[in-house]
Amino acid sequence: RIVLGIETSCDETGVGLVRLEPDGSVRLLADAVASSVEQHARFGGVVPEIASRAHLEAMEPTARRALDEAGIKLSDVDAIAVTAGPGLAGALMVGVSAAKAYAAALGVPLYGVNHLLGHVAVDTLEHGPLPSRCLAMLVSGGHTQLLSVAGVADEVTEIGSTIDDAAGEAYDKVARILDLPYPGGPPIDRMAREGDPNAIAFPRGLTGPRDAKFDFSFSGLKTAVARWVEQAREAGKQLPIADIAASFQEAVADVLTEKAVRAAVELGLDTIVLSGGVAANSRLAGLARERCAEAGITLRVPRPRLCTDNGAMIAAVGAHVLANRVEPSPLGLSANPGMSVDTVVLR
Ligand code: ATP
Ligand code: MG
Ligand code: FE
């Protein structure tokens, strides 16, 4: 059976197609993404109105592209999955409306699914079934969370999360401080390769004995970078951008991987799935690999294209709930911008 997945929670319009095989495995057929990221660049962050309009324009062509890529017709689709939340209200509404129209026209079930679980489920498209329980480390522009996940997405418990900025948000803000382009992850990742990660000792948030041990904080780190840059500028020094980028990146990767591995060990989980846009970061993935190897933990990281927002991850959740005969969402489904991580399918 074929599942079409639609993603419009932020600035990517994604349509993905997957095939649920009789043996329960799920295969990626197509993954078409249109991004409005360039339209937001001069604002230094996603502008919701611009994102919604861009989704409206991109929805139909992106769906066409996915069907062409898979070499199938719309009428071959057996179920529709769509991001019902969390995300930007206006942006979500575009995807949900399109999904309802497709489901009604085709007479197939509709599943309004959780975007965050999509970031975890997408790994099954690349590395096959997940163990019965694993630790998911979700690091993106809007989220930084440690989740204990059973099934692909059946039972999800939050172990920890950021108390202020998300990791990707910290990258974007630090890039702005360093006059690097938006989104900040890729340029900082590139600059950091030329720099010394130990040049500047930036703070690791929430690592004190009395801090919640699996929560994160990145706003202090961002402020520390801003203060360091300001002082260097006042002193009339040439900014060592590569060293700042490398030292900032080290602080982020260090605290994320340290807490993720400790959580997995304490919970007795032998697999970590690292996903979300920041999982594309070379140092984060590298350090996670080192520390997981030391702790005897299997690390799974989807390829970068599947780490950032896309429709295939939503189709992957759809295929999973379809396989488990989960009851579909009503055709009157509306998006829930604040959808909680323990809800897989929205009613
Ligand atoms: P969410 O999934 O939480 O709703 P989102 O759509 O912003 O939010 P993604 O598309 O998964 O999330 O990720 C985008 C974020 O990833 C941006 O903040 C970007 O700077 C960051 N990012 C992308 N590539 C890299 C990289 N190589 N290193 C670090 N960060 C990166
Ligand atoms: Mg994005
Ligand atoms: Fe996302």
Q: If you had to describe this structure to a student in words, what would you say it looks like?
A:
The chain has 347 residues and is an alpha/beta fold. 43% of the residues lie in helices and 20% in strands. Helix 2 packs parallel to helix 3, helix 6 packs antiparallel against helix 9 and helix 7 crosses helix 9. The longest helix has 27 residues. It is globular and about 65 Å long. InterPro entries: ATPase_NBD (IPR043129), Gcp-like_dom (IPR000905), KAE1/TsaD (IPR017861), Peptidase_M22_CS (IPR017860), TsaD (IPR022450). This is tRNA N6-adenosine threonylcarbamoyltransferase.
Q: What is the 3D shape?
A: globular
Count of helical regions: 12
Q: What percentage of the residues does DSSP assign to strands (E)?
A: 15-25%
Summing up helix and strand content along with how strands pair, one would put the structural category as alpha/beta
Rounded to an integer, what's the Rg over CA atoms?
A: 20 Å
Spans with pLDDT under 50 lasting ≥5 residues? Answer: none
Bound molecule types: adenosine-5'-triphosphate, magnesium ion, fe (iii) ion
What is the CA-CA span between the terminal residues? Answer: 23 Å
